[in-house]
TrEMBL record:
CDD domains: YbiR_permease. This is Citrate transporter-like domain-containing protein. Keywords: Cell membrane, Membrane, Transmembrane, Transmembrane helix, Transport. Residues 32-503 form the Citrate transporter-like domain. It comes from the Eukaryota. InterPro entries: Cit_transptr-like_dom.
Amino acid sequence: MHGIHRTSKVVLGCVAFGIFWVLAVFPTVPFMPVGRTAGSLLGAMLMVLFRVISPEDAYAAIDLPIIGLLFGTMVVSIFLERADMFKYLGNLLSWKSRGSKDLLFRVCIVSAIASALFTNDTCCVVLTEFILKVARQNNLPPQPFLLALATSSNIGSAATPIGNPQNLVIAVESGISFGQFLLGVFPAMIVGVLTNAAILLCYFWKYLSVEKDQEGGQPAGPEVVADDEVTSHRFTPARMSHVSSLNPDDMDCISEPIIRSNSVRSTSANENLRSRSVNSEADIQLAIKSLRASSMSHEMVEVSTVTDRRDEGASSRKFTRTASQQRSVIIEDSPPSPASNGEKDKEDEVAEKRWRVFVWKTAVYLITLGMLIALLMGLNMSWTAITAALVLLALDFTDAQACLEKVSYSLLIFFCGMFITVDGFNKTGIPNTLWELVEPYSRIDSAKGVALLAVVILILSNVASNVPTVLLLGTRVAASAAAISHDSERKAWLILAWVSTVAGNLTLLGSAANLIVCEQARRAQFFGYNLSFWSHLRFGVPSTIVVTAIGLLIVTSY
């Protein structure tokens, strides 16, 4: 009887895990298109209903330190996005770029470093449309740049415990400090990103060179996109300024009271010409700015200044004319008016507001830097991230609801359900049985063992996804390595972190970051592009194999 009960538990546990797996890998299956989050909760619920795991054990299976660390990093990333950190990273991509190949290399480096600090998913969300925009503006094929963003983000996220969810799990489960994790994987990440960039350049060299030839032999260097045109999620079409010499920031906050007339001799003009004397070049530019803000804003403005000779008591007059309609504006001396005082107050108010924004942004960057320093010092990672998040919420000095609504609670719930489902599947004994078959041949004290372990992780990460793979294999791989030495145990965790992360580059479904890039590119309002499964696979397979192998040589030598 006990054997029958045991068999039914194994079968039902496998059924529950199978349902979870199908919905996690294929979230829109026709027979139950409920998505990953609901699929995760469904798997957890079935584990409890089938009595594979008790309700108490189900709650205990949820790893709260990982949930807390994930929540804290999400909030910090939201504030960094509000503080324009990712806009500045986007501008860095196109600043003084020397052509398509230079841009591709920059995308690899910037996305890798940003992912290591702000998670790969966040990096892909905020940079995809900007990269599409730069590529389209310069008549460059989007595919190599999108692949560079997705693959480099995955590789870069392997360097730190906060780079991706599976690293969060590894850091908490293994007890490896932030600094040790960084030292163990960062060198492999740098070499891996450079290798990936080299493979991208070789693979797409012909496509990137064609654009150069089409431009008459001149490099198709991306032009710099203005700050006000770079946003995190939605971008506006490129616009050209009519008068580039004028500072657009001044246009936003300063306007002079200038009254236009069709004829200098008209009666209405004589009644309305009231303003201050303009005796400098700066005042003339203020007149131009006001003209641009009016109905003449779309005309090319030529400024001609006619200064009457001064006699005693005579005042200087200056005229501003348009080439198209010969309209004139006369600006005369007049005593300060209440309106001009109000404008000065408005100017001061705008300047004060800009100063407050500058101070707020600086504080956000300093708090984030403090969080990274605290992590490097070995403080508790989850509480460090939560503390930084709460300090930022308090610093904002507004209702936190607007910020907290941007947190991906669906991802947090997905993790909770996944913890319960994987724990229930472990209790069936199936993972242990499979590991016992592989373990004697996958010990990390030999090159063959490391290679076999890497292959198992690579395949399982693309079949069951990387986070469940880490949950299933983590403690088993560590226990096997601990039998060799204490240093081998830490090395085993780092190998798991490296391979499970880079494995996401193998297929389009291997990583959430890949899917984010694909969906963001497809839905882009003005620069949409469809990154297909096969186009990713053709590059992903050779890149993943080469980068994984090179990185393993470095990680195992640590």
